[in-house]
């Protein structure tokens, strides 16, 4: 079994100079043939996959930090770190690294080797070490020049760091700082600023541990106050000692933890406020400082989490009614910062952290905090709640469902969140947007668990629609009331903030329509929600009107007949068409959104809505000519009526469809759906389209509905209307269809044509578009001078292609023509 001493976390430094956790595993060292050398290997403890494979390069600088960290750079701007669970494991790997590089394991860093000129390298190798001038007032300028000249060279920088560390030089410099400050020696203070800043850029953990110790850190900050570029020194120490005060909301008994918190705050302050912004060339020189802060935070969270007494007292005071508001304010701010620190933990440790908080009762505590009047406290509680929802929404859902069995709806946690969203005083509703995102996560079925004996989705959605949905929709219902029955429902408040809130609510309701099933359907139909939403299409704010349209569009997109009957019963297209007409000729998003909604109804052939729109609103829409959407809807409607009036024709049309080659429905145009649009590609010349089983049908029974149909077509064409159709046949040009009818249509279809009108072997003589073609091949509908002027007009290219195909078929098979073709040719 793998030794826990070798258990490590692997970190990499990202572009923002923050450490990213790459996983937890067990480290080992050994010779890797592919890398031709001894390497460090880390395999994941979860699945054994390789997290890290890094050759121990003799020229790479490895640093040992805080007894359990090893940090190094594999390439420029690519830093790695191993954080060991135990010090013993860190020591073992460190000894192995030092053994490969030929170094003494007692050092905390192995020496850098960089590309420099041969002369410079020879000089550095020949000199045993760097000799520092004595730490005296009159030698500070020499020391500042030495530090500045050593920074560009990694070798000299390393020698300078060793010299400063071995001679205890930092404490001597800080003593000199106190002397200069007492003497008000501004020149010496300026030199000390340059020296201390240079020591920071040496990027060495051992020096940081001395500089950030309790007795030294304030003097280090004092040195950095005297920037030569400023006329007056900064007052950082005054801020840290007088203004910034450590608020110990819960007494911390562990002195080591207290010291670690103080140290982390001050080092963070140095990084953010005291040190000047590093240049592009200096950024990498402060990587160790970033690491120092990061691992300090990880250590603080771990120590607090292990202190059970501390957490117990924290949550007891949070939920105690006797706790005053100021004290609770401090407690919740501490808890917020505590949760923020937890984001530095690796995933499994973060799981344990939030599980600990849950067991301590963080959700009941948040419920108390959200009931307070202090806006800042509620804001902090919202941030804590967001951490919990993002970590584990199921935990929050389980809590609120259990809570509903004991408390009234008004004080449920989720209803408090909704109320704070509704009552957000920010003109831009920043807090409401954040809370709406959290609610959306909670009601999202995608992150709900489903087990054999318990379905979270069903239980929680039933709870939400019973106890919470009325709170969420309250602003919508309140702002679309029917004060005067004669005027109908009106939109009361149309100010920007109210409209923005309603837009957020509509966005969440639209999400529910998409992802919930019968719950939202029952709610919308029973509460007549869509009617009230469509009132908002009259808003002066375009974003709100578009939200209302989007809500209806999602409902129509479900193609649910329950919704469709609800829309038709209440004539809910009326406000949409009114908004479309009021928009006029403006070509904007409102215009496009409404047209797209009707286009969807047409393309998807939603029959009930098509009939409803044409029967009730055609007069208002018939003059819209710049798009063909509404005329297409009218055509759909007429086709539906024809099929209803002639069931035999409809059944014949289905037969034709079933025995023709199937094509993608999206490529079919309206005119192609008519029964008479047969394509020459689908048939052999002279071959009828009706299967043999239909030959016994009576010609008179079948031709009678066809004749009536053609007469109705004639009446429609008398109004100068022309039906254009396009056929999308794969591999062929699209033949254009043009239909025209004369007074002798019926005669042309029923009487046999003259032989002179037939063109044998040409695709221009298709079979009859009715079943009668089987029983009487001579009744094929073709062009005649006195009758049907032109039923199908094909391009010439198609004639040539079909002739060539026929010739090829004859040559390849060497068979006589089929009987149907013989009869056609002989006719």
Automatic annotation (TrEMBL):
Compositional bias per record (Basic and acidic residues), positions renumbered to this chain: 709-724
Molecular function via GO: protein phosphatase activator activity
Residues covered by the PP4R3 EVH1-like domain: 5-101
Biased segments, Low complexity type: 736-762
Chain ranges passing through the membrane: none
Classification via InterPro entries: ARM-type_fold, EVH1_PP4R3, P4R3-like_central_dom, PH-like_dom_sf, PP4R3-like
Listed GO CC annotations: nucleoplasm; protein phosphatase 4 complex
Region (Disordered): 677-827
Pfam families from the UniProt entry: EVH1_PP4R3, PP4R3
GO biological process, one term: DNA damage response
Acidic residues: bias regions: 677-687, 794-812
Record domain Serine/threonine-protein phosphatase 4 regulatory subunit 3-like central: where: 143-639
Family label: Belongs to the SMEK family.
Role summary: Regulatory subunit of serine/threonine-protein phosphatase 4.
Descriptive protein name: Serine/threonine-protein phosphatase 4 regulatory subunit 3
Phylogenetic classification of the source organism: Eukaryota, Metazoa, Chordata, Craniata, Vertebrata
